[in-house]
From TrEMBL:
Record-given protein name: Class I SAM-dependent RNA methyltransferase
Organism in which the protein naturally occurs: Teichococcus globiformis
Keywords of the record: 4Fe-4S, Iron, Iron-sulfur, Metal-binding, Methyltransferase, S-adenosyl-L-methionine, Transferase
First-tier enzyme category under EC: transferase
Listed EC numbers: 2.1.1.-
InterPro entries: NA-bd_OB-fold, SAM-dependent_MTases_sf, U5_MeTrfase_fam
Length: 413
């Protein structure tokens, strides 16, 4: 069947709007032939924006969805999606900034799926686009080459690892101290496995390898050859295995710049900033160069890591463990702060928003990784009279449909 694509959907599929038909891999303006299940069979009249995807795994690997779209149009799509998210929240006149798009080969965090084949060999890669299969990666154009270089040695090492039976995953974080590996395995590592892991760590410059059961939380260090550290604004923090990091150093820098730029101009040394969902302190340390910071976070290991580093550099950051979904900051508590930064998980910050909307904060700076949650949370601010002072799309997940943003809200007084 032939169809004409007229839009790009939120997940990057070509859309035939009037038929609510979604065709992965098709672009607006194209006439394409599709299967009964809307799979792209052939592009009959290509868009001028269509380019040759640079990665040999594109189309099978679920990591990238948009390598077939020219970079300029791709960036314009991301910008339009942020404008649309804010429009839906009721902010109709926002001049969205140009997106900050991070370059290829800079992603420093990968969550790779592992499968053992019947012949003992190991498949390692991201989940496939359509199926539950794992695409066995020979290369990856978004990941930092230091992580890609570990693919083959990891496969070889896992082949002989007894604690890896059928399936598992490998979280690789590229820290300032080198790659940090968390293996989730379906077996229990014994002495021989631990020796193999220590030899692997030494041969490939990994200060630490940790392990966890495939279904479970308890994490243990399996090999530790040196300290682990990630640096924020010149301060070393020692992260727990598999910790959340912003996806690329360039994306992190763009977020930090946009957050600092959104702070009220008249901060004094005594001003206080509330930072919600602080993680390891990616934003806390840069923010602490402008004011005192109360950094709230629910994950206790992250709070401990942030607290230890914050104490070492003086008392401008208070790291506070708090589940903000169960116990949001109250209007009374918010009175202590000049501004507030929030960087919630994918689901957004629904429980915290009513108090923020009512508050007298000068600025609310919302770091978003989910346009739908931003729309829902933004609606409350809009209804309470807040306006958008600046909105910056940040594309840390190159060639994917994900969209991050820093939105600065202020309330005219
Ligand atoms: C998107 S990450 C941001 C972390 C940090 N701001 C950064 O840039 O690295 C979201 C953080 O929110 C934390 N979080 C999730 N649910 C939370 C809750 N209910 N209360 C407080 N923090 C929460 C997570 O543990 C995670 O550290």
């Amino acid at each position: 069947m032939q169809v004409v694509i007229d839009a790009l959907g939120a997940s990057g599929d070509g859309v035939v709007t009037c038929e609510r038909r979604f065709v992965p891999g098709a672009l607006p303006g194209e006439t394409v032939e599709v299967s009964e299940k809307d799979q792209l069979r052939a592009v009959l009249a290509p868009s001028p924006d269509r380019v040759e995807p640079p990665c040999p795994h594109f189309g099978h690997c679920g990591g990238c969805a948009m390598q077939h779209l020219a970079l300029e149009s791709y960036a314009a799509w991301k910008r339009a999606r942020l404008a649309e998210a804010l429009f839906r929240a009721g902010f109709h006149d926002v001049a969205v900034e140009a997106p900050r798009v991070t370059p290829p080969q800079t992603r420093r965090r990968a969550d790779l799926a592992l499968r053992r084949q019947a012949d003992g060999s190991v498949v390692l890669g991201f989940h496939g686009r359509a199926s539950g299969a794992v695409e066995d990666l020979t290369t990856c154009l978004v990941l930092d080459p230091a992580l890609v270089a570990l693919f083959e040695p990891l496969r070889m090492m896992l082949r002989s690892l007894q604690a890896f039976r059928r399936e598992g995953s490998a979280v690789l974080n590229l820290l300032n101290s080198g790659p940090d590996l968390l293996l989730r395995l379906d077996g229990v590592p014994h002495a021989q496995d631990r020796a193999a892991l220590a030899a692997f760590a030494a041969a490939h410059g990994l200060p630490r390898i940790a392990g966890a059961p495939l279904k479970g939380m308890a994490t243990e260090t399996l090999a530790q050859l040196g300290p682990v550290a990630i640096r924020f604004a010149g301060v070393d923090v020692s992260p727990p295995p598999g910790a959340f990091l912003q996806a690329t150093p360039q994306g992190e820098a763009a977020i930090v710049d946009a957050v600092l730029d959104g702070l009220p101009r008249k901060l004094t040394a005594k001003s206080r900033i509330a930072e919600l969902h602080a993680g390891l302190g990616t934003l806390s340390f840069p923010l602490a160069q402008r004011a005192r910071v109360s950094a709230y976070e629910s994950a206790s290991e992250a709070v401990t890591a942030l607290d230890v580093a914050a104490r070492r550099v003086g008392g401008r950051i208070a790291a506070i463990r708090r589940d903000l979904a169960r116990q949001p900051l109250s209007a009374k508590e918010l009175e202590a702060f000049a501004a507030l930064v929030l960087d919630p998980p994918f689901g957004g910050a629904a429980d915290q928003m009513p108090a923020l909307a009512r508050s007298n904060l000068q600025r609310i700076i919302y770091v978003s990784c989910n346009p739908a949650a931003l729309t829902r949370d933004g609606k409350l601010l809009q209804a309470a009279g807040w306006r958008v002072a600046k909105a910056t799309p940040i594309d840390q997940f190159l060639w994917s449909a994900q969209l991050e943003a820093v939105v600065v809200f202020e309330k005219p007084r």
